[in-house]
Write a structure and sequence with these properties.
408 residues; mainly alpha; 79% helix; flat; membrane; cell inner membrane
Length: 408
């Protein structure tokens, strides 16, 4: 028996050493592997340029050829450019962490960065945000950039009348429409990316990486069944309810008569099931902590590598928000403030904080929750009032007047 146990331990240790060695080797080769993937993507784009576009940059002009073949080529190029950006970001992050940049990779790195710089300036997004020369010259004109002496509506009306007599008005309208469409597509795609990337990172990292490690690390020790006293109280409450249901059904003869020994056996079986269930919940809560960290890192990487998309998203949101009527602006502001800082908001914040605590396996501290509810909505309300006073009163005074009348 002892020799069998010893052989199993030796086998497990050998397996762990093998997995650790494989993981270490794979991690150490991450910069080289990421740069190779980015380099291969650049070569694919270069091959498409040489074969179908005469060696010219593919995304320099608006789409003139509406054939399915041209659309497929452009879609493939956009996908390869995105893949190159992601792999280059992975290369830089891994080099920063590991610090093992090899000199033999400098040639590939230079080619990839030059190629991305060309496509970063050339793609339709550059026309949308008025790029001149490089990314630092981005100039997205938004509604709140400056405050005019006359109301904006008068200026817009005069500008519209002058455009009617412009012989190039139709071409200008088509150009603005294309830019607006490109801006909308970029903004929506960026919003979806901001949502999907962290969610998928959290889910897959938890399921395939973190949860197996946590389950092997924590084992099946009974002392680690419950992360906090609330879990233990919940398990005891379920066990007591189950035992009371058995006794009640036995008393009213809705079930076959059970002896005390049978009842005790059923309760023991239920306790064993609850132990497994709450051990799994505890493992899941521990895994959530590390999976959420991975999701935050993924979100940060998306933000860091998408500076231009953020500018386009800001311009897109400005067009939507400031394009609303004054009544619609006032209605949305009142709705949001009443939800988050209104009279009934403390109940919602309490549910949110308790849900986050349960997700992370932390006992809900009533004192902390009360302090949070007493301060955080007040801070939000102050920020909202300052924004109304500082920005909205200059951009849309009539919206502020409408908001004041609706509040009264």
């Amino acid at each position: 028996m002892t020799s069998s146990l010893s052989s199993k331990q030796t086998y497990l240790l050998d397996k762990l050493k093998y997995y650790w060695h494989s993981a270490s080797e794979r991690i150490s080769k991450t910069p080289e592997r990421s740069l190779d993937c980015a380099y291969q993507s650049v070569l694919k784009i270069k091959a498409i340029e040489d074969e179908h576009f005469g060696g010219k940059t593919i995304l320099t002009e608006p789409v003139q050829d509406s054939t399915c073949f041209a659309s497929v080529l452009r879609t493939d190029v956009e996908k390869q450019v995105t893949m190159t950006k992601m792999r280059l970001a992975e290369f830089k992050a891994s080099c920063f962490v590991l610090g093992n940049l090899s000199t033999k990779n400098l040639g590939k790195l230079k080619l990839v960065e030059e190629f991305l710089a060309k496509y970063t300036i050339s793609e339709p997004l550059a026309n949308t945000v008025n790029v001149v020369g490089n990314a630092d010259a981005i100039n997205v004109e938004t509604v709140n950039d400056k405050t005019a002496v006359l109301p904006r509506s008068i200026g817009r009306t005069l500008h519209k009348i002058s455009d009617e007599f412009n012989p190039k008005a139709e071409a200008e309208y088509v150009r603005k429409y294309r830019n607006s469409r490109a801006k909308t597509k970029t903004a929506v795609r960026f919003i979806i990316t901001l949502i999907i990337v962290p969610v998928l990172t959290q889910h897959f990292s938890k399921q395939f990486l973190i949860s197996p490690i946590v389950e092997k690390t924590r084992g099946t020790d009974d002392s680690q069944l419950f992360l906090n006293y609330e879990m233990k109280e919940e398990a005891l409450h379920e066990l007591q309810s189950y035992e009371e249901v058995l006794k009640f059904e036995n008393l009213i003869h809705q079930a076959p008569p059970l002896s005390p020994e049978v009842v005790e056996d059923k309760v023991k079986h239920k306790a064993s099931e609850l132990a497994k269930e709450f051990h799994h919940k505890s493992n899941s809560a521990v895994s959530n902590v590390f999976a959420d960290m991975a999701a935050l890192i993924a979100f940060g990487l998306v933000i860091i590598t998408s500076r231009k998309e953020i500018i386009v998203l800001k311009s897109f949101m400005d067009d939507i928000v400031y394009g609303l009527s004054d009544s619609a602006k006032a209605f949305i502001i009142i709705l949001c403030t009443d939800i988050f800082v209104g009279f009934h908001s403390p109940h919602g914040w309490e549910v949110i904080v308790e849900g986050i605590a349960s997700h992370l396996g932390i006992a809900a501290n009533k004192s902390f929750i009360g302090l949070f509810i007493a301060t955080f909505p007040v801070v939000l309300d102050t920020i909202c009032k300052y924004w109304i006073f500082r920005y909205l009163s200059k951009i849309s005074p009539s919206a502020v007047a409408t908001l004041r009348n609706m509040n009264e």
